[in-house]
Each structure stands twice: as structure tokens, then as C-alpha cells.
Amino acid sequence: MIYLGADHRGYYLKEAIKKYLEAQKIPYEDVGNLKYDENDDYPDFASFVVQKLQKNLKENRGILLCGTGIGMSIVANKYQGIRAGLCLSGFMAQKAREDDDINVLCLAADITDEATAIRIVKTFLETKFKKDVRYERRIKKITKIEKTLK
Known about the structure:
Structural class: alpha/beta
CATH superfamily: Sugar-phosphate isomerase, RpiB/LacA/LacB
Number of strands: 5
CATH architecture: 3-Layer(aba) Sandwich
Number of domains: 1
Shape: globular
Helix content: 40-55%
Number of helices: 6
Order of helices and strands: EHEHEHEHEHH
């Protein structure tokens, strides 16, 4: 399942991504915001998405949108098992999936147009983790760090 979340600055781009996912018949759940609200706060939606995602980290992925993508990245990466990455291009999404096995894509709605966002999402969803020894070793190190921070 793909879980989507956005604050007011990411709301309209999230709606465009939903149309893409529907056209591709990719299952998703929009966990909010479900309407434009200029007074909402990105930490709420990042938390909603990540908590859903954590129920099955092997199968689920998340897409978070705010103005810069930075706030969403910060919040999502506070949660154990989450590797959120801000991607501004398809190349970044490809490398983030292949090398770092990100499970949450963060997008910067203020600077990412709809066509670019769709390319990034498509790459994020289609690219597989390489599973090279060096990449797996790095993921294990991240997991070890997470466990020491409990």
C-alpha cells in the first residue's frame, strides 16, 4: 500500500499524484490532509503516514509532501525503520531506492512541478533496492543506530 500525506503547501500536488496512482491502478490511502487548510501542520501528516507504514515495512511505502519536503523528512526519520528521503529528481529517487532503500519519498511542492513529481513518484515505485553487500551493510548500521536511540 502507498500512504500519502501532505500539509497545505503540498495538498494540491498530492491531489495530482492521487490521479496518477488511480490511472496506474496503484492502491493508495490518503491519510490527509483531506482538504486544503492553511493552518494545518506537517508533523501531523508525516506521523499519520509513518504509523500506517510501520504496520508492514516490507510491503508499504509512503509519500509525503510539504513546501520544501524538509519538514516531512525530519519528522518521518524520527520513527524506527523509516528511511525517508527528499528527492528533487528522478535520478535522486532512483539512487535513494537503489542505494539507501528509502521507504518514504518526500517531495518539495513549492519547487516541484506536477510532471516532475509524477516522474519522481514513478521512479520511486518502480526502482528496487540493489541489495549489494555495501548497501546492506549500511542499512544494518542505520538499524543499529536506531536501536541505540530507544
